[in-house]
User: What shape does this take?
Amino acid sequence: MSTMSALLPLATLASSLLTAAVIFMLPEQAVRTRTALNLAAALIKLVLVIWMARGLVAGEVYAVEFAVVEGLSFVLRVDALGLTFAGLSSLLWLFTTIYAIGYLEDSPNRRRFFGFFSLCVASTLGISLAGNLFTLLIFYELLTLSTYPLVAHRGTPQALAAATVYLRYTLSAGLVLMIGMVALQVLAGDLRFGQREFLAALGPEARPWLIGLFWLLTLGFGVKAALVPLHGWLPRAMVAPAPVSALLHAVAVVKAGAFGIVRLVYDVYGIAFSASLGVLDGLVVIASVTIVYGSLRALAQQELKPRLAYSTVSQVSYIVLGIGLFGPLGTIAALAHLLHQGLMKVTLFFCAGNYAEELGIHRIDELDGVGRRMPLSSLAFTIGALGMIGMPPVVGFISKWMLGMGAMQAEMPWVIAVLVASTLLNAAYFLPILNRLWFRPGPAHGIGTWPAERAPSRLETSVWLLLPALATALLSLLAGMLAGLPFSPLQWATRVVEQTYLMP
Amino acid sequence: MSPTPLHLLWLLFAPLALGLLAWVRPPRHSGLVLFVAMPLPLVALWLLLGLDDGPMAGQLALGPLTLHWRLDGLAALLWLLTQLLLLASALYAAGYVRTTTLGQRAYAWLWPLMGGLALGLGLIWIAADLLLLYAGLELMGLCAVGMMLLPGNAEALTAGLRYLLFALVGSLTWLLGIALLLGAWGRLDLAGMAGLASVAQPDPVTQIAVALLASGLLLKGAIFPLHSWLAPVHGSAWTPVSAIHGALVVKASFFILLLLWRALLPEAIAGAWALGLLGSLAVLWGGIQAWRAVGLKQLVAWSTVGQLGYLMLAFPLLAGTSAAVALMAWQATWLQLAGHALAKAAMFMAAGNLLLSTGAHRLEGLTGTSRRLPLSLMTFGLAAVTLMGLPPSAGFTAKWLWLQASLASGQWLWVVVLALGSLLSAIYVFRVLRCSFVEDAPEQAFRSLPLGMELIALVLALAAIGLGLAAGWPLSFLAPVGVP
Amino acid sequence: MTIAPAAVSAAAWVLVSLLLFLAGFCLLHRNLWRACQGFVAFALLMSLAWLVLGSPWLALAEALLGALLTGGTLLWTLRGRGALPRLAPVDETPRRARLSAPLRWLLILSWLGLSGVALVMLLGLDALSPPTSTSTLLTATGVLIMGLGLWAFSAQRHLLRRLLAFNLLGSGVFLLLAGVAAPVPVSMIAHLEPAPIAEVRALIFIGLVVALLGSVLGAALLLQLHAQAGQVTLTPMAPRHPGR
Assistant: This one.
């Protein structure tokens, strides 16, 4: 092993950690320095992650570890699965950073915001590179701590209340996770991810314990993954600024929860052992309930961001559903959707933020005719929404298709009914929005006024806000159309499955 | 050159000498304090590193009187921690005097008292007989009371007097316990007593004696239910004094208690459980009171009551459990003690900075601090991470080890206590942090503080965090579940 | 200096009854001035007791630290110092209600009970019969004085009287300490090492110093508190858990 192998994961982690530290030290007024630093760090991180991806394909091993106390180690280890999540978060972080710079222009407390923003992404990266449960928990809790100031950022009573609810859920969940992980360690020692045979070898008397611990840990991860009934914090956290919502919904928080479940099933218990314990069926049921319930609640929302929030509740559970479907296709669907949902959801939130910033629009019935005033944002929104519904050629179609195939493979045809129902519901809550955007006359046609229009600029809105939305929309389109090319999300997910799970 | 007893003697008395010097000419610049006092922690570190060949031990004969001492890894670590925290507090005090109006004479008195405290604590860490322990405990107690009284206002006086009375009665309880032990064993050195205790059945006299010793120590250590003096005394004390007191003084009593328990009643499971239960109540009660506290310093002081409760879990987890469990509990205890000491000092300093700058004593007065005092607030938050036991802090690693020890030994109760304690601490910590986010607060006159005062606290808080991942190094000095 | 046991007996009985009388006088007298004088006399008698127990150095220390310095400080505190207002010479504060604090009584009784049981175990059952040696007699006196001191410490509110009570409590503990360790104890575990007399004396000496420092500090604080807030008790309103 070369020194490079230890250095790269650390450098990737440090690229955001150090940025956070430096940003906290910079004065509030140093806007240009901070912007440059943010963008440079995001780019460097992306480059490092791509570098590691290429190295991993070429067979390199990247790992660091040291003992914290005897029998308990801090382990960073790059594997294909972790890199999937790392790649997603670093790519979307770049766009979210750009967006946040534009969004928070001239607002107070930007130092605090960007400091914790970097810390948040550092934690996400740590979660993806963690090599055992102890390390995963460290970054998982760090994520909780670093997102709290972001949710509370505006300091209004609603924001503080939402942040408190967020903490209540996530800290309790962290505690549950910790107890579960410690119990697992007592049973089986300091397990590295990928040492799946240990738990399976424990013998039949440990099985009730293992099943109990599985559900305990799922309970812990399920809060961040917003599984019903643990989703209560997510819609309330909508009061946070739009980039934070994007971060919570697409890049970091709910993904961290889903990723935790992925790790738990594939790398701690092992998919075959999980199936033999019978816990996968439970996951499928929970995911199905969450999918349908989230969609129904989304349908009932009259405001844009809460509707998107409930849509997240529903969509993230596709990942859990894919995990629960025993078989390679289900796994591929889960991993691919981890990436796809991120791309589409971040687009939707960027656009929602644009509407709010440019025109002061928060409610859905205020969206009439926005397509004329802001055609590019609305186009991006349309791509994202169609993707969510599952319309080809956007990537959402691939997710749903693979899920359906996975359900057939796992011999659970009723899951297809859930998918169809969910698709219909998705259409029911997204199509009216699209209708309003493009086909209903509104203030742009001279009927009524926008709630709070900003002074018109050269483009439909600030470049900083527009470009990220367009870029992610384009990516979700391309990822769908070019799904067959190497390094597309689908191909990468297939590679993960082939290399790591089914052909050991 | 390897450490000799003379070096120990130097490290014991040098702080006192410096304190007396500073009494004559009270320092007003942190730089001077740093320059003069820096050698102390360095020597302590050198002593620690010089212990490679095993612990040092010896006797000192003063006429017919024989004093026993020993310096093992644990004692050296604690001594190093003591010197570091005293230095930090001294640096802070030098900045503190410039930003507040303190009485000149009172400020001068701070220094010899601090020196005496250093001597007392040093004696406690290295004492190997009850006589030296008694001397150290009393010296520390009196100096601590003296320091608490320095503000001189009526509030401080009543709180200090209450503390004094408690401490004096506590010391008599302790002396009575020693009297009985002396009657039962005819000796005072811990090693000898431990040797006898390991072969003899525990007799009722020893149990009564240890019960008396324990209650004296619980009283001095502010451990539930004998904690009532702690919160008022911190409410009025100077910040650097609160910092040392919360970080070190109350810990010394716990240290002695654990030392005696391991030596005299290593297998007394019922008593150990009783102590563990007391600790559990302390965790809950301290947490609830901190939740309800009105003032920031009271909140921090109540959190000390709760956090000390965690330490008491060491007794049931060490008594009669398997070697692996005992090792985890042993490591967790010292890690928590060190982490909490650093974090609590940092937290008191950060809280002191916030109060000093806003002039408010209630939590509601902290609104808007995130914009004006980001560094102190950040320090408070970082220190709170350790107290809540969130990663990657010493508190987290300690909590992990404790959970593991409790689950491995089947003592489920402590899991519940640890969980509830963590939740309670999160609740009271975020009560503070929440206030600081409020934006629509009336503009207050913020006083600017010297950067040094904020940086000292930050360094301590970061040390508490760093200790979580770098726990392996200090723990490597601990003897495996040492009987002294 | 060995004195024939039979000869001491009468003298020792006189000494012990005087000690008890003075302890009670000093704790019960509401006139603080008298109480403090009683304390000085008590400390001098204690010094005599140390002499009887064969430790002249402790006797000297007791006379100096206990009678002269502690007693002197307390008397001086009463006389008033400099510009600080004088304390009222008579304690007017009400005693705490007798049945208000069962917990307090429980603590006192368990303290006494525990030490009594332990003593009986250490000294053998004949400790319960009329004492035969001077040291046993003094040990028993120590327990009684401890009881008086504890009661007064918890029942009274005036801080000066509580300081006095603390000092007497301390004296009781010292007597017990000396009594337990000084003769060859008949303990549960047979050990033939000589009792560490030097260590016992050192313990008592440290105890005396601590008591002196505590009293001096407490008295000075009391004066300050009286000057600043006009109170001579810890809590004017006396709530159970004051000052949260």
Summary: Residues 92 and 478 of chain A are 15 Å apart (CA to CA). Chain A has a mean pLDDT of 88. The two ends of chain A are 22 Å apart (CA to CA). The beta strands of chain A are 63-69, 72-77.
